[in-house]
Design goal:
6-stranded mixed β-sheet, 8-stranded mixed β-sheet, alpha/beta, Leucine Aminopeptidase, subunit E, domain 1, 15 helices, 2 domains, Aminopeptidase
């Protein structure tokens, strides 16, 4: 049980501006009417052509440079068609990457002239929004040095087109920024307060935070067990979004794993495995990004977002291998491995979601859950598990359309016996192969009878590529889930 004697972390007061990220469109911050005197300028022409042409051609001018971009000139990946980059993704990444080229050339002003249809214009603007994010700049409140002027087919771009694309990019960059924040800034308490600052107060949205006393009252023994050793107590954040006109439509429910730092607990990670564990809240960051998009765009679907926040630390109050914890739904869980903590906080939060007064239409959890999925699929593909084949296919297809790729994995029921325990209803982890599958099978028991999908993500880019200019948080799952929501009938 968490006690009241814990001292508040010094960083708790640092939440008023989300540590620099204020939610404004970076693209809008860069838009200028005119080029400043003495600025080195670039004219960037973006058009789609299947004719033989270089993907990027640069022509030096006296006062700057002229750049011609043809995203269709890039070679298609070989192999399964489901994994190939489509035109939307090529345009987004080519236009985003062009900003990096301009920065290296010390360009101060860039006029982008697009020759694109509406969908690909959105991709181009999305690429610009994503590419303008830099962690150090945001933390310092800087906007960068490149001014922008944008037009499409010789006409000004409408505000609606700009907002639609830029808000998506903001949602991705918000998720990236939260993952990039160090654990001495971001912990369960400061995270919860930051969400209240960002989203609280709107007519269509309500943010509720459950502290350790409420978690105990709710019987969330798994969540409390994971957070017991940390000086910063665990939190559950519920973002309830109900747009006007949604009526009695069943909400969508999203649950995000929010382990703000994962030491592994008593089953401690090696230093190489612990180094990036500030990103172990990447699932919750993705869910927060989707919530931000929904509120900003007043999306039509009613939704509930749950962020299961805890720090998996080491200490005398920490949970141990062979401990038996009781979940909110009454199941007893023997702890086989304290480093299999994410599924524990997710399980209790999922029970809250499926037993809410408004039963969800679908339940989707997002988590940096297993190293096993990275071994199987690498860092760019999320593992997608589901108890509903149509739901899995719709999420997979939506992600593919916007380059947020996943691969449907099997919930192979034969492996469930690996979670058997002679002392409890189940153990929280199993040794041996198939670790991503057994983790998903553990979570399935907490989905009840609700159609459920589980995204096992990496949430990180080991190096910059495409519109992502730097190593760090990737915002994985945000674009795919936004596209899925928009296409729901």
């Amino acid at each position: 049980m968490a006690t009241k004697s814990r001292k508040k972390p010094a960083t708790e007061k640092s939440t008023s501006k989300l540590w620099g990220w204020a939610g404004q469109s970076l693209v809008k911050a860069h838009l200028q009417d005119d080029r400043k005197d003495g600025q080195k300028a670039a004219h960037v022409h973006v058009q789609l052509s299947k004719k033989a042409a270089p993907a990027l051609r640069t022509v030096e001018r006296e006062d700057g440079v002229e750049i011609f971009i043809n995203p269709l000139a890039t070679a298609e990946s070989e192999g399964d068609a489901r994994l190939k980059s489509n035109t939307f993704v090529r345009v987004r990444d080519a236009v985003g990457a062009s900003l990096g080229t301009l920065e290296k050339m010390e360009i101060g002003f860039a006029e982008y002239e697009f020759e694109l249809d509406a969908d690909n214009l959105e991709a181009a603007l999305l690429g610009l929004e994503i590419a303008l994010y830099r962690f150090k700049r945001v933390l310092k409140g800087e906007n960068g040095k490149i001014g922008l002027a944008l037009s499409n087919r010789g006409k000004a771009i409408s505000d609606s087109a700009l907002v639609n694309a830029s808000v998506r990019g903001q949602a991705v960059n918000l998720a990236r920024h939260m993952v990039n924040l160090p654990p001495n800034f971001l912990n369960p308490v400061t995270y919860a307060k930051a969400v209240q600052t960002l989203l609280g107060g709107g007519k269509s949205v309500k943010v509720e935070v459950w502290d350790e006393e409420r978690l105990e009252k709710e019987g969330m023994g798994l969540h409390l067990g994971v957070g017991a050793a940390s000086i910063t107590p665990p939190r559950l954040v519920h973002i309830k979004y109900r747009p006007s006109g949604s009526g009695k439509k069943a909400p969508l429910a999203f649950v995000g794993k929010g382990i703000t730092f994962d030491s592994g607990g008593l089953d401690i990670k090696p230093s190489s495995g612990m180094r990036l564990m500030k990103k172990d809240m990447g699932g919750s960051a993705a869910v927060l990004g989707v919530a931000y998009w929904a509120v900003q765009t007043q999306a039509k679907q009613p939704m509930d977002f749950y962020l299961a926040l805890a720090e998996n630390a080491i200490g005398g109050k920490g949970f141990r291998p062979s401990d038996i914890l009781t979940a909110r739904n009454g199941q007893s869980v023997e702890i086989h491995n304290t480093d299999a903590e994410g599924r524990l906080v997710l399980a209790d939060a999922m029970d809250v979601a499926v037993k809410a007064s408004e039963k969800p239409r679908y339940l989707v959890d997002v988590a940096t859950l297993t190293g096993a999925i990275k071994v199987a699929l690498g860092s760019s593909l999320a593992g997608l598990f589901s108890n509903d084949a149509k739901l899995a296919q719709s999420i997979n297809s939506a992600g593919q359309q916007v380059g947020d790729m996943s691969w449907i994995m099997p919930l192979f029921q034969k492996y469930r016996t690996q979670l058997n325990s002679p002392f409890a209803d189940q153990v929280n982890a199993a040794d041996g192969f198939g670790g991503a599958i057994t983790a998903a099978l553990f979570l399935e028991k907490f989905a009840g009878d609700v159609p459920w999908a589980h995204l096992d993500i990496y949430a990180w880019k080991d190096s910059g590529d495409g519109a992502w200019m730097e190593q760090g948080g990737s915002g994985q799952a945000v674009l795919g889930l936004v596209n899925w929501i928009e296409n729901l009938k």
